[in-house]
Amino acid sequence: MILGRVPPPIPWKAWYAAEAASEQGRAAVLDALRTARDPGATAPLRAALERGGIVSFPHTTLRGSATPLARTASAILDGGFARVVALGVLHGSSLPEPERTLARAAASGDREALARVGGAFVDEGPATTPFGVVATGPVPAPAPGVRAGGPLLSSEFSLDLFLAVLAAAAAERGRAPPAVSRVFVGPTSAGDGDPALAADVVQALAPLLGRSVALVATGDLVHAGHGYSTPEEIATLPRERDALRAHFEPRVRGMLLDAFAGGDAARRADRESVALRNDQRHLLPVLARLTGPGARPGLESFELTDYGSILHEPSPCVVASALVSVTPAA
């Protein structure tokens, strides 16, 4: 989570694991998978993946993310992809010390800290979910800015619900889920909008990709309201839910268009990512390089998930649950 002040000490990995394992969570996943059987729910996602593009899903609560996760998992399985490369968000709050402090310093402009905790961290070994085990896929070779995550990833959670829903979707089809290579992207810029490490991450990922490989990512593109924003920012926000969505959705669309346009537009997207508290900020330059010039981002769905009761904050307190497809130009 990206917060404007110190949050309650919630162990997010355990929190989401309990949600997925609960009766309500399992029902939400299975219900979302039934909805995703409609070919119209998966067609734009399959089209992007089959052209070497990307699908990006949220990692909010199952109430907010079950449907986009089910659409993504169904698109992967219906498309017959043999493997998956999944790019997670490395939450600084999930890191142990001293890496947690270093991640904050790196994102604020400390290049020495960026050299120590920037780039990508690779998770290895099978992933156990409430719906079954997901095997690990090939991992990138060690490279500048790409390293084994090991204990640093023990509390990271951004891909956990995706792995659970992928396992559930495969179980419904009576098959094992495809192996997933899990790579978590941390700071790629020293706070100046220049993604110095993005090219290194892309170079390490390239050998893992191919026609039979689905490339997916996660990101919660807005964190806003009490617990996230400053009092001055909160005072400008609408209070009614539909108005709040109407306030943020066009900003997210614009940010995505800018992020994949490159040049000055990408730097503008970086500034908007900071304003929106987009936890995919440092991953977006990697995604843009992976899809190449002229890639077209599409906002397939956009909702705001209420975190007020979880964080014990008044309304508004929201996180975006956005499903995004990115289709290369050629």
Question: Can you give keywords for this protein?
Answer:
globular, nine-stranded mixed sheet, Protocatechuate 4,5-dioxygenase, Chain B, disordered N terminus, 13 helices, alpha/beta, 330 residues, single chain
Quickly give the structural class. Answer: alpha/beta
Largest sheet report: 9 strands, mixed
Count of domain modules:
1
Outline, from the CA principal axes?
A: globular
Uncertain runs: 1-7
Secondary-structure arrangement, i.e. CATH architecture: 3-Layer(aba) Sandwich
Output mean pLDDT: 94
Q: How many whole angstroms does the radius of gyration measure?
A: 18 Å
Broad CATH class = Alpha Beta
Corresponding CATH superfamily: LigB-like
**What's the number of extended β-strand segments?**
11
The CATH topology corresponds to: Protocatechuate 4,5-dioxygenase, Chain B
- Quickly count the helices: 13
The proportion of residues forming helix, as a percent range, comes to: 40-55%
Strand content: 15-25%
The run of helices and strands is HHHEHEHHEEEEHEHEEHHHHEHE
What is the terminal separation in angstroms? 35 Å
